[in-house]
Amino acid sequence: MRVLHRTRIGGITTVGFLAGVALPMCVSSGVLALSPLGADRVAEGALAGVIAAIVGGVVASAFQRSCFVTTMPSNSLIQASLLGSLLVALDGNTTVIGAVVGVALACIVFIIEMNRPVVRRKEIVGTTRSRRIRSTAQTELLAIHGRELAVLELQGVLFFGNADELAEEIDRLPSVVRVIILDFRAVSDVDASGALTLQQISARCARRGQRLFFGDLRDAEALEEFTSQSDKPNINRDLEAALERFEEEIVERADSSARSVIEVPLGRTDFGMTMAPEDLKVLMSYLDRVEFPRGTVLCRAGDQADRLWMLTRGCISVWVDAPGGRRRLASIGAGCTVGEMGFLTERPRSTDVIADEDVVAYELTSSAANKISKAKPHIAQAVLRSIARQLSDRLRNATEDLRMSHM
User: Fold this and answer.
1) Helices marked H in 208-348 — which ranges?
2) 0.85 exceeded by pTM
3) Model confidence pLDDT, tens digit, residues 149-176
C-alpha cells in the first residue's frame, strides 16, 4: 500500500529503484568493455554503478523519512549515478571514488532542482485571455474585469521547502484580484506537505473573498486528501479551461442572459449589432435557424466553404491536425460568427469545427447570399460590412494581446 501511494504521488518505487541500480551497472560495464582499459575492468565498473545508485537511493530514502518528503527527483539520482559510473569507466579510478562522485553529483543536482523558484511566471496585468472568441460586448466586459485575475505559472517540485514561497507570492497579490489560477503544467511533483499548503492557501483565499483555480494538476487525488467534502479544490483540465471558466463567470455575473444555455437574440450578436435593425429584419428572411447537438461536426478541413453560421447559443471549437497531434486553435461562443473567412474567400475549409455544447445558429448559405445580392444589393453590402467589422475587431484584439504579452 505504501508503494502504491508513493507511486501515485510520483516518488521512488521499488521498480524505479531497481532500474536506478541496473542502468548505471549496464552502461558502465558496456563502456568499459569497449574502452582501451579492457574487459578486466568491467566488473569494477559495474560495481561502481551499483554502489553509486544504492548509496544515492539510500540517501534519498533517508531524506524522505526525516523530512516527510514523498517525492524526489529520481531521474536526477539515476543520471548522477550514471555519471559517477562513467567516470570510473573512463578514468580508471577506484570504485569508491566513482561511487562518491555519483553520490556527490546526485546531491548537487538535487540542491539545484530544489532551489529553483517555484513561481516561474506571474501575470497580474489583466491581459491573460483564453482562446475563446467572444462577441464584442463580452470582450469589452472582460477587459474591464481583467484585473480581477492573476495567473501564476509554477515549476519544479512543490514541497515543504518552497510551499511557503508560493503562499507569500499569493499574499502579495493586489487586493483587486478575485481569482487566482495556479498553472501546474511545469510542476513535476507535489508532495504531501505541498498539497497541505495548497489547501491552507485555498482556505486563506476564501477568507479574503478570493478563489483558487488549479490548472493541469496531474495528481488531483493527492490534493483532495487534505480537503473536506464541502471544500473540494477547483480543478480544471489545463490553464485554458481555467481561463474559460473565469471568463464565463464574469460574463454570467454581469448578464445572466449570456449563459451558454440561453439563446441570444440575433439582434444582440456581433452580426446584428453591426447592421441597421431594418436591414437585419430583411436578412432574417434569408437565414435558416439550425441546431447542432453536442459533438456535431459543422465542417471539416477541405470541405467547401458554402455557408457561415451566426451562433446564438452554445459554443464550438476549431481544431487543426498539426505535426505534434490534433490541436484546438480556439473556441467560439454565442454572439459570434463562424466560417466567415472561407465564406468570403470561397476557399476550402482549413480547420474542423465541432460543437462543444448543444448549439443553435442562424445559417447563411452561398445560394441565399447570391439571392440577396440580386434582390437586395444594399443588404448584401451591409452583410459584407458586418463581416469586415468583425474580422477587424478580432485582428485588433489579437494585436493588442500580442503587444501586451511582450511588455
Assistant:
1) 220-224, 239-254, 270-273, 277-284, 340-345
2) no
3) 999 999 888 887 788 888 889 988 988 9
